[in-house]
Amino acid sequence: MSFELPAPKREQVWAAASEADRDAAKRAADMINLHLAADPSNVGCWVAIRLSDGGSDGVVYDNAAPPLDPRHHAIRHQLHETQCAYFNLRPGGITRADALIFLRYNRMVYAAGGRLPKPPVNRMGTQVLRRMN
Prior knowledge:
Elements: H1 7-16, H2 19-38, E1 46-50, E2 56-61, H3 72-76, E3 84-88, H4 96-111
Antiparallel strand pairs: 1-2, 1-3
């Protein structure tokens, strides 16, 4: 999933956000980036980020084997699937502004009664990572 916005637009979104939303985004970005800094082999794994405050249970979850959703382990360890956003750890981490957009997107999908689709996987069973330029 790509939610990359041009830098000026990201700054506008950040400036217009409430203090609570900015705090949640900071917390989420810090948690995601900490997992990547602590162990670079976490790339490709999943982190469950609470939509309420951007916090996490602090666990890095491995991909589930096909045909399960790769997020399966992260989802099943939460009280309710829709209380968290599931972030796939990628090289370079995430900015606070992008974490804000990611949290907002997940909140909107769940508030509308939707569910995020299962991420695509290739025939080898690994997740397909799209290059972001």
